[in-house]
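Q: Sequence in, structure out?
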Amino acid sequence: MIASIQGRLIRKSEEHVILEQGGIGYRLDVAPSDIASLPHVGETVKLYTYLLVRENEIGLFGFTTEDQKNLFELLQTVSGVGPRLALQVVDTLTPDAFALAILQNDIDKLTQVKGIGKKGAARMVLELTDKLKKSAIAIPEIAAKTTPAQRAGDDEVSEVIAALLVLGYSSSEARDAVKRANPCEEDTVETLLRRALGQLAIL
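A: Exactly. Output:
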């Protein structure tokens, strides 16, 4: 796989760039925010790359940092997330901000990304919480300071919060209800969800 390319920048558009290396011009799809940060055409640039190969599609994606590339790769593991949406995430959120949003179940932050709704954000939290902790992406120090509610059972807490979001509650309402429900190690998703809904009913 092509891990990175360093070459002369010969073209910039809104969504891709062309780097020339060894007489070959490589077209890379790059997040618009990264394209804006690149130097002028004619200068030397290094981009970390991800080669996408599918049955009817081949694409080369470029990133200014390895963390961005790692985030893009991680997003490919989420059901329903393709390379275009993954690139939109990279364009909108830094890897640190994304990791923090996932680990803190911050649905509001995730839905700032164009193309991600509440259900999609909840699915990302469910599918990426454990994967993120094992990935090459650096975890922000603040995210490592888990709340007591989260320590009581990460999987159950995440699933209950996701369920409440699907029911129409806001991210802050869901997190607060779960916290006040006092999760414990013996909880199942059903028992914790029942108590959380009870807390919302008395608001």
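The chain has two domains: 4-64, 67-201.
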